[in-house]
Structure formats: C-alpha cells, structure tokens
Amino acid sequence: MSTKENKELTQEYGKELSEVTGDLTRTRARADKYLGDDYVYHTPSGDWSRERTIQILGAEPAFPDVKYTRVDAVAEGDKVAMRYTMEGTHKGPLMGILPTGKHFAISGVTMTRIKAGKVAEEWDFPDLLGLMTQLGLIPAPKK
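User: That's the sequence. What structure does it adopt?
Assistant: Structure tokens below.
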C-alpha cells in the first residue's frame, strides 16, 4: 500500500473503532476488517493481543462520550505516526477506578505499522499524567 493509503486506513480504522466501543459484536466486526491476525497493541503498561484489545474495546466504556480528533499524521513506508486529541467524561470503571464524572481533554501520539492492508502493530502514548490529574486521581503539580 502507498503511504497515502496507509494514512487513510489508519484514519478510517480509528474513526470506526471509536464509534463501536462498548459493543463487543460491532467491535469484533470492525477488528476483523482492520486488524491483522498477529496484531499487537503496545501500551505504556504492556502489550495487548488482538483478542485482549477487542475484549477491552467491547466492554463497558469508561468514557462513553469519548471523541478522538486526528490533529496530523505523517507516513513513511509501512508506518503512520499520528498526533491526536482525546476528550470525554469518566462515566464508567477505568482499571478498577470508580467513575469520577469529570471531563478531560488530553493529547497523544500513536505509531501504527501496516502489513498486508491491515493494522499489525500500534504504539500508543497518551498523556496519562494529564488524564489522571484532570480526573482528580492524583494532585495537580504546583505552579
């Protein structure tokens, strides 16, 4: 695939998966469309398999009103780097943390590798410190 096609694929994939979060059947259908069989999601807390990713995205969402916005993307070869913003409200459980009801807005960067027209790997670097601070789970840094 061309770099332009890779960028378009990651845009479609991100948009469609965020629309089906919380619905396991629809999440699995979108994953079948976009994720390779050997897909790995690399997070700051460890790697997720394709199945674990589907199960987490298909579960009750911590942020049911989440909105991702692609700020920009750069592609070279089989990789696409994307800068994004993410905002929403903490209305469901998050890694054992009860909902706070607080709104947040953070940014992040994702690197995606494409193989045979599907997403093979992703490395995601969201601003988790900003998220935890905005949700009131850790104190804000002193000014």
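The beta strands are 35-43, 46-49, 67-76, 79-89, 103-115, 118-126.
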